[in-house]
Amino acid sequence: MARIEEDRVIDSSFVQGWTAGPKRGLWDAVSGAAAPLQPVDLPHDWLRDQARSTDADAGSHSGYYPGGAVEYHKTIHVPQEHRDRTLIVEFDGVYRDAMVFVNDAPAAQRPNGYARFLVTLDPFLVYGADNRIRVEARAHQDSRWYTGIGIHRGAALHVKNRLHVPVDGVHITTPTIEDDHAVVAVATMVTNAGQHTVTANVRTHIDGPDGAEVGVAVSPVTLFPGDSAVVRQRIAVEHPERWSVDAPHLHRARTTLSDASGQVVDEETTTFGIRTLTLDARRGLRINGQPVDLRGACIHHDNGILGSRSFAQAEERRVRILKEAGFNAIRSSHHPLSTPLLEACDRLGMLVMDEAFDVWTEAKTPFDYSLAFGEWWERDIESMVARDFNHPSVIFYSIGNEIPETGTPAGSRLGRRIAEKVRTLDPTRFVTNDINGLASTLRELSQLGFGAPAAAEPAGGVNDMMSDMGEGMKAIDPLVSARIEESLSVLDAAGLNYGESRYLSDLGTHPDRVIIGTETYPGSIAQNWPLVTEHPHLIGDFTWTGWDYLGESGIGRTDYAIDGGGTSAPYPWLSAWCGDIDITGHRRPASYFREIVFGLRAEPYIAVRRPEHHGETFTAPPWAWSDSVSSWTWPVRPGAPVTVEVYSAADEVELLRNGESLGRRPSGPANGYTSVFDATYAPGELTAIALRDGQEYARWSVQTADRDDLAVRCRVDRERVSAGDLVFVEISLADAAGRIVTGDDRGIRLEITGPGTMLGFGSARPNPTDSYAQETQTTFDGRALAIVRASDAGTLSITASTTDASLPAGVVQLTVAPDITAPEQETP
Questions:
Q1: I want to staple 249 with a disulfide (CB 3.0 to 4.6 A). Which of 3, 209, 274, 521 is the partner?
Q2: Looking at the predicted structure, is the pLDDT value of residue 591 above 50?
Q3: How confident is the model over 752-774, as a mean pLDDT?
Q4: Tell me: domain 606-703, CATH 2.60.40.10, correct?
Q5: 3-state DSSP helix/strand/coil percent for the chain, to nearest 5?
């Protein structure tokens, strides 16, 4: 049990020592008839480890996971002296329809599964005794993707004096920024929950990126009992180091609140960045005066084999890989981001479009958030903006995704209310709404004979209609323009999902309109990106998706079945299979293609279509990439036909097989950055040469793995970790040079000895039959990933071996240092 220490957040201990299990009725709970609760630590996703089945209610939307309800329990001891304290639990997100009970009394609820919310415990506590916290959550046909169930994001316990700075009580802006001088405006809320009038002092220290103090201010404030007041301070910072994508310099404000005697009663630390934002159709988006084109990735909230659990190190790894792949912006689809993900974006220099809702009042699934929207939307906007306010990475708020109401007068009015609510809370960022013209006119188009009949939505919903209409989307532009004009007019930038046909036409009809391609097909980047770079009013492109995700199963698959088609894949499909980066963090060929189009990679890239399907007929929705892998190790006979794709910005590409030229093909922008070669398989080396004016300027090769030297290889990004850290173990079937075998996957058994626990184990296989909680998995394209959490100091050993002992095992050993930040724990 965690010991409550005065005036601090008990982060690392409060997330430990919970129990969880299926939600029990009152009779089951008191009679003990229900299954016992299991010990868990937060964050936790109860759904990930449940059995999937073909008859799951939500079908492919949820990845064939069932719905359900779960409850979490924790006991804390509150000492008598804490009668003069305020205790607040902060939940970063509970999916979904959360109910919080303290000593069996209802203390809070939150329908939105991604909203951060606070629960004041004081009215329900028994002092000098143990106190029970119970959190209930549930999910059932309420989303179009995998959500998870439970306390899937972090939680913290705040212990405050009666005189204190509330959570989110410090707001920082930088109204003046020049090369030699900046003004940091700090607004600090102070609350007096005591019974006497007090005069307090608010002292704010500003530290620069190197940790040295660069400014300080002290201000008194008098508060009557029950009062709250805002203390405003303007602090000069000389020669400020600005925050940007390429140089994400962070400053820190240390706020100290002291009472009349000089005793410190509260402290807060706030990280922020000094940077300017401007936006207009003539010069586009500028940060610190410099133009920035958004190389954007839409991402969902899940962390692949971890399910929906949001660990800080998993989020940082995700942002780092996305940035290494060439992205400089992410759009949170379709929910507010977790706090650890925002913090990672701040540190690493990733721009953020934080999105509030996937639905307003019009439901997309039978039991979704639309049922609670009318009562809760304002509080959810307030929560998102309060949490985002000091994060320099956040530059846009999106108020919705493909909202059908945006094509109606009433919906346009509602959008205006939401946008103005955001601006009232934070006038320093821009507001958009990700509008899909088809979704905005769906019923009207159905009545006109487009897509499905009005009375019957297709199995894949809007996804299937968009896939089927193709170029027909252009034909509905006049109707769409009339219907969404008011909804667009309330925004700082028009977010368009699959609205490329409007990019240039709107420039003529609305020359001052700024446009963002908020969601685009992965294969359209070659056409879209030149428009972004040439036209300032078009400030970016966000692909669907940058990182693969669970649910919407198979919308990006290549289907070789005779009766294939549609965007809903059958069981056991799990992931969408449409990401540039797969769920384990491995970059797929589309990622390298995009990097080349962005102008960030000079070397060509080789992708080989799976030879076993050569010549077969296939179908693929517009979110699919070619069924290719960057490999020259295949289980086919020499001489078997293969198709090779080479991506390059070069005028021309030459392909060599074992030194023999297979010819030259045109490439570059005029040819979609792609050259296709018909070849035959021969083990050895395949080399692509990029040519400009007939001269080589870059080359890249793939080689066949040495099958006589194959082993299970394990790689981690560090050899020393601290207790509580996550260890990402990349497992491959490869030779000593790291060349991976494709098409000869093996079962892998994971064994952990020492202070560590497996959090997840799996591969990027989009249609797995194994659970990510199992200690045995099958590789996919020769790869797998294990995520292990170090639990204590000592030596941690992780072994990955084939289940049939056919290859030498891979072993990694790590030294685990104690977690010096963890508070002490005690048992009552």
A1: 209
A2: yes
A3: 97
A4: yes
A5: 20, 40, 40
pLDDT category, 365, cuts 50, 70, 90? very high
- Count of beta carbons in the 10 Å neighbourhood of residue 178: 10
Residue 513 CB neighbour total at 10 angstroms:
17
> 147: left (phi > 0), else alpha (psi -120 to 50), else beta?
alpha
pLDDT (0 to 100) of residue 155:
96
The answer to whether the 293-548+575-597 and 708-817 domains have the same CATH topology is: no
The pLDDT-based confidence of 825 (bands split at 50, 70, 90) is very low
Q: Compute CA 316 distance to the chain's CA centroid, rounded to the nearest angstrom.
A: 10
Pairwise CA distance, residues 750 & 774, whole Å: 9
Tens of pLDDT along 320-354?
999 999 999 999 999 999 999 999 999 999 999 99
pLDDT, tens digit (0-9, with 9 covering 90-100), for 408-456: 999 999 999 999 999 999 999 999 999 999 999 988 887 776 654 333 3
**pTM of the complete model:** 0.95
User: Which residues on neighbouring strands pair with residue 699, listed in sequence order?
Assistant: 689
Residue ranges covered by each domain of the chain: 11-41+68-139, 170-272, 293-548+575-597, 606-703, 708-817
Cα–Cα distance, 335 to 155 (Å, whole number): 18
Between the CA of residue 236 and those of 273, 290, 636, what are the distances in Å? 14, 23, 68
φ and ψ at residue 95, rounded to 5 degrees: -100, 120
Cis peptide bond upstream of 43, omega within 30? yes
- What is the rounded CA–CA span in Å between residue 225 and residue 233? 23
Architecture of domain 708-817: Sandwich (2.60)
What integer pLDDT is reported at residue 457 of this predicted model? 40
Q: What is the 3-state secondary structure (H, E, C) of 147-185?
A: CCCECCCCEEEEEEECEECCCCCEEEEEEEEECCEEEEE
Q: How many CB atoms lie within 10 A of CB 602?
A: 13
Q: Are 125 and 68 in contact (CB under 8 A)?
A: no
For 604, the token pair is 């060509």
Mapped onto helix, strand or coil, the DSSP state of residue 624 is: coil
Q: What is the mean pLDDT of the chain?
A: 93
For the 11-41+68-139 domain, the top CATH level (class) is mainly beta
Residue 536 three-state SS: coil
Domain spanning 170-272: CATH superfamily = Immunoglobulins (2.60.40.10)
pLDDT confidence of 827, banded at 50, 70, 90? very low
